[in-house]
Amino acid sequence: MPEQTAYKPGLDGVIATETKLSYLDVDAEEIVLRGYDLIELTQNKQYLDIVHLLLDGELPEKSERSSLEQELRAEYKLPDRFFSLFSKLPKETHPMDALRTGISALSGYEKNLDERREYEINRTALRLLAKIPNITANSYHILHDEAIVEPKLELPYSANFLYMITGKEPTPDEAKYFDQSLMVYSEHEMPNSTFTARVIASTNADIYGALTGAVASLKGNLHGGANEAVMHMLLEGRTTDGFRSLLYEKIKNKEKVMGFGHRVYMKKMDPRAALMKEALRELAAERKRDDLFGMCEAGEQLMKEEKGLYPNLDYYAAPVYYLLGIPIDLYTPIFFAARTLGICAHVAEQYSNNKLFRPRVIYTGPRGLHP
Fold first, then answer.
1. Closest residue by Cα to residue 326 from 162, 111, 213
2. Is 314 tagged catalytic?
């Protein structure tokens, strides 16, 4: 019998590839993006700076960022009659399913679908980054019999995305908090959806196929969906005491409490959660919703004491989105819209040095049977 390597359920800790894009250094509490600390970037730069960093390899000069924004604006518009696709879907369609359908359908309009050179893939990535916010926001509006909100070209990228969702032009602070959320969701080394995209790309499938598979992966509630679940819990709890009681009940019933724990950040708080916690503190004070911030802090303390678990990004991103007026069903699609950047960068990297993923198994079934 051939020698078998150690079996790691869920490929836990197994090295799948080499990458120059990002790395989670848990000991240093640092998320590295092409050499930069993601949290430091989020505090000093904008989402479009990270777009340039991941796709072009370096932070942009001011003129380069301006050119990038102009290139994105030129691609905001979706093909004629594209929105009619969503009017044909059942009203019960989940926004992630609508997004998956939209990205798959958009591939038919891509002239460079068979292109695998890094530069051309990065240009395709920009077209996707321009159009996916439009799909995200307006597929939701159509499914809820709401008017389509066309992009507002004079707004910065993130402010326009938030505007298309809410129909209201955001304040500078609202745009800042939303932009920060896109930045911390943008890239995170090798989570399931990114791995899914790289596996698909390794077959030499096109980038739209890789992204479609990644949407399906992110829809699963063990990967995406936690931010939505967190907000539903907060609304169900209503008060600090009510929220604590709800969490105690879940712990007693051995239910998974969404928004806590992470396959990588097991002994420390997700640094992205700490950044969103500060955003929530500021936004809650501005909106006179200190009660909501207090609920979140109480839940954080309870889970640390009772389970030794720390908040992940979704725990504090959810109430930030709630105070920004974003419908709960759109939290995970927004996560994917932001992560489109990192996934596209990984797909381009996979194409540039490709080897088909083909793992083996440990067989546990019977042998020697005969008909």
1. 162
2. yes
